[in-house]
Amino acid sequence: MLQEYQLDGKVALVTGAGRGIGAACAEALAQAGAAVMITDIDLEACQALVTRLREQGCHADCMQQDVVDEATWEEVVSQTIDRLGGFDVLVNNAGILTGALVETDTLEQVRRINSVNIDSIFLGMKYAARAMKPDGPAGRGGSIINMSSVAGLFGTLAHSAYGSTKGAVRSYSKHAAAEFGSLGYAIRVNSVHPGLIETPMGDHLLETWIDLGIVPDEAAARETIHSMTSVGRLGTPREVALAVVFLASDASSYVTGSELVVDGGMSGR
Ligand SMILES: NC(=O)c1ccc[n+]([C@@H]2O[C@H](COP(=O)([O-])OP(=O)(O)OC[C@H]3O[C@@H](n4cnc5c(N)ncnc54)[C@H](O)[C@@H]3O)[C@@H](O)[C@H]2O)c1
Fold first, then answer.
1. Which of 74, 92, 99, 120 is the most buried (most CB within 10 A)?
2. Nearest Cα residue to atom 39 of ligand 1
3. Whole-number pLDDT of residue 160
4. What spacing in Å lies between the alpha carbon of 255 and ligand 1's midpoint?
């Protein structure tokens, strides 16, 4: 592998890494050489992944974390530095999806998705910046990767609250990139925008379309997605994870404030 793509000596923290895209990111980062702290509300899933990665000879540890809890962020960042010897990469991946029409959505549900999908980005960047900046306890600069979505780039049916949170993730990333750069922190910030990916959340989106009568069944839902892409299929978590490895590595040293779209061509049509 090209040296710039290797993550040997780097320490990464991935949230929502118990399954899906987060688990794939943790695995790919570890396989590229990083020591990885895996967090999720589902501790058992994290522990299972740590076992699997250690069997592959990778360096991984885990903690339970609810990304909306500020006190836990402080603890997770401090434990990451103590246990793994630094903090260079944050993948702010944890998120939830709710599908609803604007006219029938509830304020409670909208506030919940705002909290999990946006507050977590703020909290993650806050504690990562404090740790990664030159006079912070990790002190080596770093790369923050915020998981957005194509739903943050264009409008979709029945996912306006979700899409709005992902638009906020995109914008937050650009502002933080400018701020950290201006302050001389050597911390890059980018957003990643997956299209529809084969995970439990991806399945949930297809089910929402069926429940709302937009498509008759799963086969029709999948066919609709296929026809919306240029590649003609849904994406895999690994395909998103490999983009994240690029942004985590020194291969992307001149990339900050950008949005990396991984959507099989969905937004380019
Ligand atoms: N799957 C897709 O098609 C798709 C597309 C675009 C963007 N995304 C984004 O990618 C990210 C991961 O999606 P996924 O498909 O892997 O989802 P998923 O639902 O399959 O997995 C999400 C993980 O996050 C964890 N989680 C949820 N709430 C949490 C909280 N409060 N604190 C900590 N962990 C929490 C869950 O336990 C789960 O392990 C999300 O931000 C999602 O919005 C997904």
1. 92
2. 18
3. 97
4. 24
Q: Which residues line ligand 1 (CB under 6 A)?
A: 15-16, 18-22, 40-42, 65-68, 93-97, 116, 147, 149, 194, 196-197, 199-202
Ligand 1 center from residue 111 Cα (angstroms)? 17
Residue 46 DSSP symbol: H
Specify the pairing of strand 187-194 against strand 142-147. parallel
For the chain, how many structural domains are there in total?
1
Answer for the pair 251, 2: CB distance below 8 angstroms, yes or no: yes
162: annotated active-site residue: yes
Tens of pLDDT, residue by residue over 222-258, are 999 999 999 999 999 999 999 999 999 999 999 999 9
**CATH assignment of the domain containing 108:** 3.40.50.720
d(CA 62, CA 36): 8
